[in-house]
Specification:
The complex is a heterodimer of chains A (733) and B (73).
Chain A: E1 3-4, E2 19-27, H1 33-41, E3 58-64, E4 67-73, H2 85-96, E5 101-107, H3 111-122, E6 128-133, H4 135-140, E7 144-145, H5 147-154, E8 158-160, H6 169-179, H7 194-204, H8 216-224, H9 228-237, H10 242-257, H11 261-280, E9 281-282, H12 291-299, H13 305-349, H14 354-391, H15 393-405, H16 415-423, H17 425-431, H18 438-448, H19 457-467, H20 472-496, E10 507-509, H21 518-552, H22 563-571, H23 584-595, H24 598-607, H25 622-645, H26 662-670, H27 673-685, H28 690-699, H29 702-729
Parallel strand pairs in A: 1-3, 2-4, 2-5, 5-6, 6-8
Antiparallel strand pairs in A: 3-4, 7-9
Helix pairs in contact in A: 3-11, 5-11, 7-8, 7-10, 13-14, 13-25, 14-21, 16-17, 17-28, 18-20, 18-29, 19-20, 19-26, 19-27, 20-27, 21-28, 22-23, 23-24, 27-29
Chain B: E1 2-3, E2 11-18, H1 22-30, E3 38-44, E4 48-53, E5 56-61, H2 62-65, E6 68-71
Antiparallel strand pairs in B: 1-6, 2-3, 2-6, 3-4, 4-5
The chains are: A alpha/beta (733), B alpha+beta (73).
Chain lengths: 733, 73
């Protein structure tokens, strides 16, 4: 939420009591509602080109003259009939707390389609203003819209606007303030017998009904449209006879006209829109081919569509992870190698107990550092996803991939988060927001952790270097493939069991291609990154403190006597079927692995007593250390720049050669090739880390997290046991 | 009159009927694909079609596309 004072109110008015006004912005997806709110309030709200990107209700507040205005950004919808999550959000918001005025944002280049919603919004009987967005695009196409005639037909003020150049913004604000105190325009009547039924329903509805009195007509329409939620709520809150009365009316209309009232009303709105448009719009003659059609001819063609899509995705993947990696490494070094060590030194001079110093530096600062290391990768990913969304390409990608994905019960749009999952599962969970259907989102997140994230690669690299040096690449590739196969298998099973509701219809608007604006891109990135730091970050940081306690308590005890060592020894027998249950050290490394997969190798080093020692800070070297950090940041920028021009393969998939070290011998003595394989498979299929847990809680809820944990842990347990069992059958140990 | 999935790309069509469930029909109509409307079939790629009306392009999976009937005007 942002508070701005635009434009300047006359002097003295700020001290007078202000009138509160709530203005809801409603319109089809991609018509520029958010951009209009930004222009009016000066705030930065997210703008997407993906139908339904603004599922959350967002708002901006500002003061103007005597008014304190709250602008609500409603999700983009084609109608108020509850077919999608966005439409339900809109309906429920309007029912629960009707705004003082609605701004119906209508795309000037798509009048007829947009007017369908206008008709429905007029049914609400609330003060309303129409903002004709993208007026400049209409002019470029040679459209001539007669706003006066338009206003006469829709009976509400019609204001042409161009949000980026603020054209029409002041006029819109004036129209809002002038209209908000006026009585709403009379309802647009339907044809008999529907209109008669609405009139009758108005009389039949109880006085104290679900909605405020101006919305009674709309409530009658919703009930006659057989809106199941509203019918149910009526039955719950009111006399039992209300719902049956409406059902009887619906049947009566069906008998009279041969169609359900819902369809008669939909057709009426469509006909009204098609009658109004020719009266107000003059279009140039000739074919309406434009740049979007020409680009689509190439990007959606049979021969180039998929290769172009894969090339674009490879580029996004490479840019996201390769550019962010030097910054991730720098943040890690800065927090753990500079901030933590200098704070350690500072705390030591205060003579604090060593366990407290360790808790503060390794637990608290280490936890915060871990959260911050996700920030570069998330910011770059959000940037590129926002570019794909806002340019209009994301919808095309979904269209292309749906062909393959829907065979496995997945939506085409699920491809993007699943691919992102190979880099990091955390942004991938957030990337599922592009799926408009909650069932599809849950199904996608359920199989997400089988996409082996970048942090799991060091485990495979280390273990294959120790046991399978000659076929290292093949084994690692096999790991990735196994993950894909398990994901596909689970997708098919879950679609037929847990998520067995019919696959939602794939009907999607392919919005015209647009050049994304920097302002909206930055708004999108910052909004999401901040939400991650605040919400998922808290869970991650808290868990890091728990992890510190496990590894370090009782303080100073040898690894096998710590809480981690004792717990690992207790639960180790559970892993007998996987072959590594007789080595508590292997089990001990899995526990912190749940916190972050990066810690598996490190913990193995600790519990096998083969870790490298960190260099403590030297008193007096602060400025030279700080200088080194600044130089390192500069180097990170150079490395990020170079990575753009480097290897075509993203760094996540590049296997670095491992030099034999003490941990090689330690692992060699602890595992056999077969138990190493089973250990790798177990880690491959396990939920990546606590950061993913934080993201799932943030995006879904705790019961769903429990479900995902059970599914992934169970799968990891069973498949790794099968791998070990199969190996034993073939005579391996 | 035939399902839109039976026509080839670049056909100019007039929507004659929309079958299927009430929700599907209402959803398609609210997106601007209504009976009597002239549309252009931009693409027919086997598993899905893309229709264009006004400045709107709508991708529809074949499962829903076969329920939209059209004819060449």
């Amino acid at each position: 939420m942002a508070t701005t004072d635009l434009p300047s109110p006359p002097a003295g008015t700020l001290l007078s009591p202000q009138k509160q006004l709530t203005i809801a912005f409603a319109g089809n997806p991609n018509v520029g509602k958010t951009a209009l709110i930004n222009a009016l309030s000066g705030s930065r709200l997210q703008v997407g080109n993906w139908p339904g990107v603004t599922v959350e209700k967002k708002q901006a507040t500002f003061t103007y003259q005597d008014y304190h205005l709250t602008l609500i950004d409603l999700p983009g919808t084609y109608s108020l009939s509850p077919h999608t999550i966005e439409e339900r959000v809109c309906r429920d918001y309007l029912m629960a707390s009707p705004p003082d005025l609605i701004v119906n944002v209508v795309d000037a280049t798509n009048l007829e389609r947009n007017l369908y919603l206008t008709h429905q919004l007029r049914e609400l009987q609330l003060p309303m203003v129409m903002a004709l967005s993208m007026w400049d695009d209409g002019l470029k196409k040679g459209y001539q819209i007669d706003c006066d005639t338009f206003r006469d037909h829709v009976q509400i003020p019609v204001i042409p606007t161009v949000a980026p150049s603020r054209q029409g913004i002041d006029a819109l604000l004036r129209a809002i303030l002038a209209t908000v105190t006026e009585p709403p325009a009379p309802a647009l009547p339907y044809l008999p017998p529907v209109e008669q039924a609405i009139q009758l329903a108005n009389e039949h509805l109880p006085q104290d009904t679900l909605v405020p009195s101006p919305l009674r007509r709309w409530l009658s329409i919703r009930l006659l449209e057989s809106d199941p939620d509203v019918l149910q709520r009526m039955s719950h809150y009111h006399a039992q006879d209300v719902a049956p009365w409406f059902i009887a009316q619906i049947e009566q209309i069906k008998n009279l006209s041969g169609e359900e009232p819902a369809l008669l009303m939909a057709q009426h709105r469509q006909i009204w829109a098609s009658q109004v448009v020719p009266l107000v719009l003059r279009k140039p003659a000739g074919p309406a081919r434009d740049l979007t059609d020409s680009v689509d001819k190439f990007l959606l063609s049979r021969s180039f569509g998929i290769p172009a899509f894969l090339l674009i995705l490879l580029t996004v993947f490479k840019l996201t992870f390769d550019i962010s990696k030097p910054f991730v490494d720098w943040i890690d070094g800065f927090i753990n190698g500079f901030v933590a060590q200098w704070i350690t030194l500072g705390l030591e001079t205060l003579h604090l107990p060593t366990f407290l110093i360790s808790l503060l530096t390794e637990g608290v600062i280490g936890g915060a550092g871990l959260v911050l290391t996700f920030v570069p990768v998330l910011m770059f990913l959000y940037l590129f996803l926002a570019i794909l969304e806002e340019s209009g390409y994301m919808a095309r990608a979904a269209f292309l991939m749906d062909r393959v994905m829907h065979r496995f019960g997945l939506n085409g749009k699920a491809f993007i988060p699943l691919l992102v999952g190979y880099g990091c599962n955390v942004p991938a969970v957030y990337a599922t927001r592009t799926l408009e259907n909650q069932t599809d989102r849950r199904l996608t997140v359920s199989i997400l952790s089988f996409m082996s994230c970048g942090a799991k690669l060091p485990i495979y690299v280390l273990f294959t270097a120790v046991f399978f040096e000659r076929s290292q690449a093949m084994i690692i590739m096999g790991m990735y493939l196994l993950g894909v196969m398990v994901a596909i298998l689970w997708a098919i099973i879950l679609r037929k069991t847990t998520y067995k509701e019919a696959m939602p219809a794939f009907i999607m608007e392919l919005a015209p291609y647009r050049v994304p604006s920097f302002k909206s891109l930055w708004g999108s990135i910052w909004f999401k990154t901040r939400a991650f730091i605040r919400q998922a970050g808290t869970v991650i940081a808290a868990t890091m403190i728990i992890l510190w306690s496990l590894v370090n308590l009782p303080y100073g005890a040898p690894p096998e006597k710590t809480l981690l060592g004792i717990s690992a020894q207790t639960i180790a027998p559970v892993f007998i079927p996987q072959g590594f249950g007789n080595r508590w050290e292997a089990v001990a490394s899995i526990i912190p692995g749940f916190m972050a997969k990066e810690m598996v190798v490190g913990t193995l080093g600790v519990v096998l007593k083969a870790e490298a020692k960190s260099v403590p800070a030297k008193p007096g070297a602060f400025w030279s250390d700080l200088g080194k950090q600044i130089t390192d940041l500069g180097l990170a920028c150079v490395t990020a720049g170079k990575s753009l021009l480097g290897n075509i393969l993203p760094a996540t998939f590049v296997i670095a050669k491992q030099q034999p070290s003490p941990i090689f011998t330690a692992i060699h003595n602890t595992f056999t090739p077969l138990t190493a394989l089973s250990y790798m498979v177990f880690n491959l299929l396990l939920l990546s880390c606590v950061s993913v847990i934080g993201a799932i809680i943030h995006e879904f809820n705790k019961p769903y997290l429990g479900y995902v944990l059970l599914l992934t842990t169970g799968t990891a347990y069973i498949i790794s046991a099968l791998v070990y069992g199969a190996g034993r059958v073939f005579g391996y140990q | 009159m035939a399902p839109i999935t039976d026509f080839s790309a670049n056909s100019q069509l007039r929507i004659c009927d929309i079958a299927g469930s009430r929700d599907l029909r209402k959803r398609i109509e609210s997106m601007g694909i209504a009976i009597g409307k002239n549309v252009e079939l931009l693409k027919n790629v086997g598993n899905a079609v893309i229709l264009k009306t006004e400045n709107t392009r709508i991708a529809i999976r074949v499962g829903q596309g076969i329920q939209i009937y059209a004819q060449q005007p």
